[in-house]
Amino acid sequence: MLKRLKKSLFASFLATLLAGNALPTHADVADSLPDIGTTAGGTLSINQELQMGDFYVRQLRASAPLINDPLLNDYINQLGQRLVAHANSVRTPFHFYLISNDEINAFAFFGGNVVLHSSLFRVTDNESQLASVMAHEISHVTQRHLARAMEEQQRNAPLTWVGALGSILLAMASPQAGMAALTGTLAGSQQGVITFTQGNEQEADRIGIQVLQRAGFDPQAMPNFLQKLADQSRFASKPPEILLTHPLPDSRLADARNRANQMRPVVVQSSQDYYMAKVRALGMYAAGRNQLTDEMLNDLSKGNTREQQAAQYGRAVQFLQAKSFDNAKKIIAPLLAAQPNNVWYLDIMTDIDIGLHQPQQAVTLLKAQKIADNPVLQLNLANAYVESQQPAAASRLLYRYTWSHPDDANAWDLLAQASAAQGLRDEELSARAEGLALNGQLAQAITALSSASAQVPLGSLKQARYDARIDQLRQLQQRFRQYQKG
């Protein structure tokens, strides 16, 4: 009973963040809704939300199993931005992340940050269903629901939100540790959170389905996805985590269906990118059991052309994961010949060539592409340069790349490798420092930069650059200190 109670408290507070329910109620054509509380303007400014979002993203990178796959990250961010473009009241940039987790869920927090569990690719049947979860989360952010929850918490127990949010993020990586911290933090304020959450969820449901429709997706995807979860839970010993945090009564599911039925019917085909992302995520980053099954690939092979190509790609992914590079190449080579600019095929062929100890072939293949506007191919080429022992070429490419993509941990890691291969110890330390900073390890990053500064001539431009960056990270430390109280 004690364990059930703890789970209940955890689930109640998560409800302010998680997208899993995505439950529409009424088919209003506009986003005009009654004010259910406060706009949170008295609690947090947008700049404060951005700072807090930055802090918690760094904590997630350090502790949670985020998927740093350039292809998958590019896909979910393009899909997310398509939805954001059709949302109202957007006050912050949006960033979308994938986390390797077999529990079906998603959540959003300060600063336009949305995190999806990889298992969503397993349970969604089409792109509209995946978009329905994301649209609901985007609505939590645009309505500033977390800021509202924080204001409610401050009325009852000032600063409990600091530890509570930190514990929720910790629970994504270490559920037992996160739950223990969370139940201690919330103390006696749970009932207020539960009541407040119901209003938040209703508002996000209504707005989310409108965003989904305006972005050109099928509004029926919301109730269809929920119906699928409800059907699964009837025959499972443990219902999906979404339904633990968001109970799904029949009346609410009926509201979702009624709302979608009042919208204009539309037939939407899932993109090839959706199917490719699905098999890649499940084949390369499944948490626990193997999720890219032969049954799934067989089903895809019986579908339309996009699904058939994804099935072939999925077979190649299976071979790649098993290090059977020759068999993977037999599948991908004809696919790439038919679609020479397909980034999914180019990416896996790069990995195949490197696996076969033929990195120069990967370099030749990628140099023939127009990579200037494609960050995925730029990283692939940089990696191929490193593997083919051309570190100087990798560095030149990565200096430009990290200037425009400073939050890409993959790029900083590659730059550190390339610098080390050239014996450029100070530049290696500088690149390592940026990776540490992205993971919230600011003290270690400052130490690395201090070492880099000590290795270059006194008064040089390099030393000035390293010292200036140290000052920036110290200022960041100072800003973040208030969020470390939890």
From TrEMBL:
Record's GO cellular component terms: membrane; periplasmic space
Biological role stated in the UniProt entry: Functions as both a chaperone and a metalloprotease. Maintains the integrity of the outer membrane by promoting either the assembly or the elimination of outer membrane proteins, depending on their folding state.
Enzyme nomenclature, EC number: 3.4.-.-
The family this protein is said to belong to: Belongs to the peptidase M48 family. BepA subfamily.
Phylogenetic lineage: Bacteria, Pseudomonadati, Pseudomonadota, Gammaproteobacteria, Enterobacterales
Signal peptide annotation: 1-27
Keywords tagged on the record: Hydrolase, Metal-binding, Metalloprotease, Periplasm, Protease, Signal, Zinc
Cofactor mode of binding and number, as noted: Binds 1 zinc ion per subunit.
Domain of life: Bacteria
CDD domains the record matches: M48C_bepA_like
The protein, known as: Beta-barrel assembly-enhancing protease
UniProt key word Zinc: yes
CC cofactor: Zn(2+)
